[in-house]
Amino acid sequence: MQTVCRDCNSPLEAKYDLEKAAKTLSLEAAAARPRGIWRWTEVLPVLNADHRLTLGEGNTPLVPAPRLGELAGLSHVWIKDESGNPTGSFKARGLAMAVAKGIELGLKEFVIPTAGNAGGALAAYAARAGAVAHVYMPRDAPAANQEEVKAFGAELVLVDGLINEAGKQAAAEAARRRWFDVSTFKEPYRLEGKKTMGLELAEHFGGELPDVVLYPTGGGTGLVGMWKAFDEMQQMGWIDSKRPRMISVQAAGCAPVVRAGIEGKERTEPWPNAQTEAAGLRVPAPFADRMILRAIRESGGTAVAVTEAEIVEAQQEAATKEGVLMAPEGAATWAALKRLAQDGRVMPSDRVVIFNTGSGLKYI
Ligand SMILES: Cc1ncc(COP(=O)(O)O)c(C=O)c1O
């Protein structure tokens, strides 16, 4: 199974006949269909409806955050709260898609290297599909992520090292045993699942898009996926060329995208000795670095690194002021927004969406 470009070892991308898609798909048409990610079927890769696995992913709420907004002097702040997805994170969207397409392609055995949440999501959707999952996770990943993988009946392999080491081991086993490797961007389908977050944003804003989107970036699928969704929406004639400024948020202890952004580079340098409690942000060398940096630049956005102390404070504020218990990765976006508001890089009139990508419960 080909999974990346054989010439340049870059990610593959799913393409659609968007003119044809636009004949039957619109925001109105999607709103009339059963809830979830499969409403956008014309721009998704799974062709046979019987293969569309679901555990109720997608259609997450856009929660107004007026008290957080007030703290930062901003009038329009929302939290796109992904914590209600099956297995408690936005990873459900991408893995539902990748496993469903894998099943459609006749695959039965999947492998993933993961910081934590993606492993749980793969394990759940593999169980749902009656397929087999192997999960390679750093030994110091949150305990809840480890237990969840085992609970779904997947094989859990604990790795000494970070996600890049887990990735190496997973790829070696995948090649040896002919498992399908669903590492971030090493196959094209997880991106298509994450893309649905961008489609939902257009729906929340009545066919428009917010001015600013803050997204916690590890491997970057959500950010690149939303950017792809905006592109496709424009080609289908739903929106004009006005796009949100995409803000990539990383932890100061692992900020390869931020560094490349500051240095004006097209590619990241591997981050040495990566450290942060926000496990999903401990990605020292994102495979799709060029795509992440391109989306940030084309959107007129930026990349921001926040400290561990800022993440902890942000998590407390979101929980106590808005009732949303964010994953540290999600809290990082609120910490970054405060900084940008203070610097005048986000203005009071801007309509801002911060992504809480997962539930804080898994980190307790
Ligand atoms: C809760 C959470 N947020 C953000 C991320 C980073 O996501 P991405 O790899 O799509 O940038 C992860 C990845 O593990 C995660 O678990």
Remind me, CATH topology of the domain at 62-89 and 192-363?
Rossmann fold
Number of strands: 10
* Strand/helix succession: HHEHEHEHEHEHEHHEHEHHEHHE
Low-pLDDT stretches are none
Structural class of the helix and strand makeup?
Answer: alpha/beta
What's the oligomerization state? Answer: single chain
Supply the CATH architecture of the domain at 62-89 and 192-363: 3-Layer(aba) Sandwich
Q: Helix amount, in percent?
A: 40-55%
Strand content: 5-15%
Number of helices: 14
Which ions and ligands are bound to the chains?
A: pyridoxal-5'-phosphate
Spatial arrangement of strands, main beta sheet: 1-2-10-7-8-9
Task: Report the principal-axis shape.
Answer: globular
Mean pLDDT: 97
Give the biggest sheet: 6 strands, mixed
Distance N to C terminus: 39 Å
Describe this entry's structure for a reader:
With 364 residues, the protein is of the alpha/beta class. The protein contains 14 helices and 10 strands. It has helices at 18-24, 27-31, 66-72, 91-104, 117-129, 143-151, 163-177, 189-194, 196-204, 221-235, 256-262, 289-299, 308-322, 328-342; strands at residues 62-64, 76-81, 109-113, 132-138, 155-159, 180-181, 212-216, 245-251, 302-306, 351-356. The chain has a 6-stranded mixed beta sheet, sandwiched between helices. Strands 5-4-3-6 form a 4-stranded parallel beta sheet, sandwiched between helices. Strand 7, helix 10 and strand 8 (245-251) form a beta-alpha-beta unit. The protein is globular. The mean pLDDT is 97. Pyridoxal-5'-phosphate (PLP) binds next to helix 5 and helix 10.
